[in-house]
Amino acid sequence: MFLLAALYTFFGVGMSMSAFQMTAMRGMRDMPGSHAPGAWSLGYAILIFFMWWVMMVAMMLPSVSPTVLLYSALLRRGSDADRVPLISAIFLVGYLSTWAAFSLVAAGSQWALEAMGIVSATMMTLTDTVPGAIVLILAGLFQFSSLKQACLDHCRSPARFITMRRRSGAVGAFRMGLEHGLYCLGCCWFLMALLFVGGIMNLYWIVGLAAFVAIEKLTPFGDRIAKLAGGGLMIWGAFILVSAAW
């Protein structure tokens, strides 16, 4: 699944340009496109939603894989031992459903920002440096918030979550996956907003954010890295604002 999602993201299936091409033109802020800003057809809107969702699948699967593997291992010792692949898949579907909801909001936000001229309709990035700087600063501040810390603590303790919230059956697995996804979303949603800064289909940002999320969740020093990154984002944003004012 990860490989398919990554290939879909990198090659921009259905889009006018692949992620490779858009990354190569990352210095451009806008260019003549195939549609007016905000003028989306239903088909294009569905395509953008799937672009976001598949991209989230590619970015989040590496960091959630240990949780799914641990859950599968515990299933083998319980009443669902004969249905481990199915129940594990349902857990993952619940998890990814959370990111489907996020992708719907992200696609709607992209449409609205395009209509207001804040996001480029063709390059899929903010058209001005000041809004980007503000997003960087806010994302940095979020890294120090109590919500971020609570959700990150949860994501860094999958064994505790599975032990305390374990439910039996397919419905229970879906609810567990959905709940785990909500914590993960609470931890990472503002980081995903940074895609509007660097470019929604910029491979450097996609791979970089996916790697950072994995480091936050899976390494012993992830909580400290999260705060260091928050400080770095605020400094970066402040530097851009000062540079723009000169």
Layout of secondary structure:
Elements: H1 2-11, H2 19-24, H3 42-75, H4 84-115, H5 129-142, H6 146-155, H7 158-165, H8 169-193, H9 195-198, H10 203-218, H11 222-245
Helix pairs in contact: 1-3, 3-4, 3-10, 4-8, 5-11, 6-8, 10-11
Structural class, from helix and strand content? mainly alpha
What characteristic shape results from the CA principal axes?
globular
State the end-to-end distance. 48 Å
Count of runs of 4 or more consecutive helical residues: 11
Strand content: under 5%
The total strand number stands at: 0
Largest sheet: none
Task: Compute the average pLDDT.
Answer: 84
Rg value: 19 Å
Order of helices and strands: HHHHHHHHHHH
What is the helix fraction of residues, given as a range? over 70%
Residue windows where pLDDT falls under 50 for at least 5 positions:
none
